[in-house]
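The instructor's notes for this session suggest beginning with a concrete chain rather than abstract definitions. Hand out the sequence below and ask the class to guess, before any prediction is shown, which regions might be ordered.
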Amino acid sequence: MQHETLTTGLPTEATTVLSQDLRLLLADVFALYIKTKNFHWHMKGSHFRDYHLLLDEQAGELFAITDDIAERARKLGGTTIRSIGEIARHQRLKDNERDDLTANEMMQDLWSDSHQLTQFMRTSHELCERHRDVATASLIETWIDQAERRVWFLFEASRKGDEPGR
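After discussion, reveal the predicted structure:
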């Protein structure tokens, strides 16, 4: 007989797996937040103002979901990130400490990571569906929508030249 958690009614096995997955997702969101702020701080070039403001907005969106991710993991009965070191151990997105990146390279790097984060979220959503965790799945659907918007903006901002609209 499987035990259920008191707060969600989900089986303990499900809440363990889901909270572990949320820990990975949280580490990736923090890693992308820091990379986005890094590029925001070090942006230069002819599109400085637009990119600087865009990255500040995107960093704010990423930071805003960190609390929701962590609190959902706790509500499931799990633990969450406790330190920068734990983020580094769990993150799947790679840091970028290069100091010679062009603005376009920064935007492309963020596009790639944002796209990958969206895929991680989709995988988390599938895990939620498998374990019938509709509450976490619902949160993730909103995060995916926000992530897709960030990916779209980064893609358009990193396009070369003045291509006609499609």
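Then share the key points. The chain is about 70% helix and 0% strand. The chain has a mean pLDDT of 92.
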